[in-house]
Design brief:
This protein is an alpha/beta fold and 258 residues long. The chain has ten helices and ten strands.
């Protein structure tokens, strides 16, 4: 098998969790996703890098149909992504999403933000959801903040709440769309530490980020995108030491020298 075909199909030893085949997407005349093919294995951490406007966030949002696609297929754990209705809502419950902005409910306590999905969507009993929320808030290091409201927390703490909220749904895969880009620099590390911990625990993760340290430390593979296309896929060691494409070399040259 060639290097490229192995990269495109993922690690053959892993059971496929996310399969993206022939996906295209336009915004008007702009072709933002061009024939995207990528397989992410169960328990794999894939970091998506690339310049602004390369299609990274659109790809991330297409995986749970926050963005529609015009052609191609996306499947999660063997099930094709439904177009709408209750089946889509059910599948979205299996896909955790952490955004740049934390999207917490300002009028609800931290605990209630975390328990809302399990109670409303998973139909868990409130006591069970509360117990799990306590465990998850402890896991992300903010159990002492459970009865506060989002405005009383720092940005880094709010993002950790957002991660706990996603984990409360027992997702099969977690999507992270620039999870640290809205944070002050001193808060970035506390969020990345939680994400590294998730990676070590075997969570399937697709992470759009500019954090090269996270890509080096936690990724199984790096996907480099430019102009709506996947330009290359490699291990972090290969990508950072010897990128194959001139576009990736140019990107890294600009990023790593600042």
């Amino acid at each position: 098998m060639s290097e490229t075909s192995r990269d495109r199909t993922g690690d053959a030893t892993r059971e496929p969790m996310v399969v993206i085949e022939g996906v295209n997407k336009h915004f008007g005349d702009l072709h933002v996703l061009r024939d995207i093919n990528l397989t992410v294995g169960r328990g794999e951490v894939v970091v998506v890098l690339g310049p602004s406007g390369s299609g990274k966030s659109t790809l991330c949002r297409a995986i749970n149909r926050l963005e529609t696609i015009e052609s191609g297929t996306i499947s999660i754990d063997g099930k094709a992504l439904p177009e709408e209705g209750k089946p889509l809502a059910q599948l979205r419950a299996d896909v955790g999403m952490v955004f740049q902005s934390f999207n917490l409910f300002a009028h609800k306590s931290i605990r209630d933000n975390v328990t809302l999905g399990p109670v409303k969507v998973r139909k868990q009993k409130k006591a069970q959801a509360d117990e799990k929320a306590t465990s998850l808030l402890k896991r992300v290091g903010i159990e002492a903040q459970a009865d506060k409201y989002p405005a009383q927390l720092s940005g880094g703490q709010q993002q950790r709440v957002a991660i706990a909220r996603s984990l409360a749904m027992d997702p099969k895969v977690m999507l992270f769309d620039e999870p640290t880009s809205a944070l002050d620099p001193e808060m970035v590390g506390e969020v990345l530490d939680v994400m590294v911990g998730l990676a070590k625990e075997g969570m399937t993760m697709i992470v759009v980020t500019h954090e090269m340290g996270f890509a080096r430390k936690a990724a199984d593979r790096v996907v480099f995108m430019d102009n709506g296309q996947i330009v290359e896929v490699a291990t972090p060691e290969e990508f950072f030491a010897n990128p194959r494409s001139e576009r990736a070399r140019d990107f890294l040259g600009k990023i790593l020298t600042h």
